[in-house]
Design brief:
Blueprint: H1 11-18, H2 22-29, H3 37-50, H4 55-60, E1 68-73, H5 79-94, E2 98-103, H6 108-120, E3 125-128, H7 141-145, E4 150-153, E5 163-167, H8 169-182, E6 188-192, H9 198-213, E7 223-225, H10 230-241, E8 249-252, H11 255-267, E9 277-279, E10 296-297, H12 301-316, E11 326-330, E12 334-335
Parallel strand pairs: 1-2, 1-3, 3-4, 4-5, 5-11, 6-7, 6-8, 8-9
Antiparallel strand pairs: 10-12
Length: 348
């Protein structure tokens, strides 16, 4: 069979492929009963094989939906991501939907390929979390044009008219920093990610406001913005140790980065929490394995996945509409462990 560019397939391509008139193709795609059911099915099947897709076709073939949901994630290594996927799968399986998981490896270029691929796989909806460097959302427009529902979670873009499922990152940044201030810390560093992502910019704002409310100066040299991976944790520790005086606390907005950060400090004879108190973020498994155990922010990924998938399924079943500005905030709390406790008698 001759392969067409799926983006450019028209009724003329289908007609030529089957050696029939375009009028017949058009009537079949609109389920016109003047065309026999057998011919209609054959034409609709050819249209799908060639990648033909338009609103009327999708609308009139609702009983032939793929029952597949595309999930776009930015990485695969964290227990947070695995938890989210677990929550999504629980809901989609119960509703009779399969999922296709695509991960961007934190690159917008790969995210674009993923969205195009899922679009042509005729998924019924998308649940997505943005890559580190995504700065343009035009690759999601084809879904909106075809009324394919989109839900964003965790890393979202406020400008997108679609349901978003997030935590209160500002509040989390604030309570983490305030906890360090309450421990008597005065030179508090922050190690965080790109400020074009909502999660990191909001945590940073919470950090700054907590300092301000406590009458502490915000210092640019105590701000480190990096990729928040293992290598970044070691590099941040070296940078922190080069400051004079060194900070007495660090808020690291990712647990893996925080764990490597602490390891590198200890290798250079800097004690945690006595010299530098440390707080992470996500409550990943590693936070309870490191020594001392890591104070962190609980991030209920499983619940986030359940909520995102439930909203999408409700939309597909006609119970709600995700194509409107709606933000669902999942509750998250500070979990105090030894890494941030300056006082030996402080209770966790």
């Amino acid at each position: 069979m001759h392969m067409f560019d799926k983006k450019d397939v028209t009724i003329y391509d289908i007609a030529r492929q089957m050696d029939i008139s375009t009028a017949t193709v058009s009537r079949a795609l609109n389920n016109n009963t003047s065309i026999s059911e057998k011919t209609r099915k054959k034409i609709q099947e050819t249209a799908r094989e060639l990648g033909y897709r338009n609103n009327n076709f999708a609308k009139n073939l609702r009983n032939q939906n793929s029952h597949t949901i595309g999930v776009i994630i930015h990485e695969l290594v964290s227990s947070f991501t695995n938890s989210v996927l677990g929550g999504i799968e629980k809901i989609t399986t119960e509703a009779g939907y399969d999922i296709i998981i695509a991960h961007s490896s934190e690159k917008m270029a790969k995210e674009i390929k993923n969205t195009n691929n899922l679009f042509h796989k005729r998924v019924d909806g998308i649940i997505a979390s943005l890559a580190f460097d995504t700065n343009d959302l035009s690759h999601f427009e084809p879904f909106k044009e075809k009324n394919i529902p989109l839900i964003f979670f965790d890393r979202v873009d406020e400008s997108m008219d679609s349901t978003k499922v997030i935590i209160d990152n500002y509040r989390c940044g604030y309570i983490a920093t305030k906890h360090l201030i309450d421990q008597g810390c005065k030179r508090i560093a922050i190690i965080t990610g790109t400020q074009q992502r909502n999660v990191y910019s909001q945590r940073f704002k919470g950090y700054k406001d907590a300092l301000l409310d406590a009458g502490l100066d915000f210092k640019e040299d105590l701000v480190i913005i990096n990729d928040l991976n293992a290598v970044s944790g070691a590099e941040a520790a070296i940078q922190i140790m080069g400051l004079n005086p060194i900070p007495d606390a660090a808020f690291v907005t990712n647990d893996l980065t925080a764990a490597v950060f602490m390891k590198k400090l200890k290798e250079h004879g800097i004690a945690v929490p006595d010299d530098i108190a440390v707080i992470g973020f996500n409550n990943d498994v590693i936070s309870q394995i490191v020594e001392p155990e890591l104070t962190t922010i609980d991030y209920p990924g499983f619940l986030m996945g359940e909520v995102a998938a439930s909203r999408l399924i409700d939309h597909l079943q006609g119970k709600s509409n995700v194509n409107q500005l709606s933000t669902i905030i999942i509750n998250s709390e500070l979990i105090v462990r030894k890494s941030s406790l300056k006082y030996r008698n402080a209770a966790s």
